[in-house]
Amino acid sequence: MPDPLSNLPGYALRRAANAMMADLTERLAPIGLRIIDASLILLVAGRRDRTSSDIGRMLDIQRANMVPLLNRLEASGLIARVPLDKKKMAIVLTPAGDAMLAQVRAITNQFEEDLIARIPEPHRPHFMPALHALWSAPAE
Amino acid sequence: MPDPLSNLPGYALRRAANAMMADLTERLAPIGLRIIDASLILLVAGRRDRTSSDIGRMLDIQRANMVPLLNRLEASGLIARVPLDKKKMAIVLTPAGDAMLAQVRAITNQFEEDLIARIPEPHRPHFMPALHALWSAPAE
DNA sequence: CCTTAATGCTATTGACCATAGCAATTCATA
DNA sequence: TATGAATTGCTATGGTCAATAGCATTAAGG
Fold it and tell me: What is the mean pLDDT of residues B21-26?
């Protein structure tokens, strides 16, 4: 690689993440979901107490931007909004959502397995710790 | 982290990349550049033969989307379009662009150094090889 | 009780990426 | 060398995604 960017860790990180996202996007397309949809489904699986704000905080999505996302999943019949009190709404999976969850799990499990398999064996055990170090200590 | 996503390599990769990008974006803000601007400047530094299409291919940006990017950098006085023949235009740094290049290099060098420093020492040598493996073999 | 914070939402904006199409030029090869 | 194919730089457009400001309602805490 003769270009001056390939050797920069930041650049390589960005490219690796992009390649990974493109791959996962393709794998989720057959079941009509985007990455963000699948993430949300995995996050509310088996729970009836996660609010829109909760999910937004976990996925780093502003409350305002949760609305169209939830609207779409609700229109697809995958989730439902269930009042927890007069203000909070729990996001729960519908039966169709539960069925979809199984497919999401199958796809993501295979995906993560393939992802790890691409990393040469000696580097493999160091991958997650390194990522978590970057993620947890983003700014100083 | 009690959430079911943190342990997924793909998710961790995405989050680490996002944190990295946010950090770099902040560091470049004082000199009025975005990440994509800085990447382009580093890519054309010291050359007078890189065309818009070349750069687009290297950065994975469609030709059509190069136009507003180049227009902005040209309006800022950092780059110029120099005809190579009746069709091709070389993207070159102006004197102001060269001055900016020095600042870009200072910022990105420090940034990459800090990035690596965040990774615990034992994992460090494995980081770039792992990323390149993911980047170079995105789909199979 | 009453101020403060949180929730879910509307509306808007901008960055970014993808696609289709076009005129002009270069190229490849027959 | 002539001609069809590919390339270049561009316009125009639409879609996704994130960020901001603002609002009415409700919950929590001093």
Answer: 94
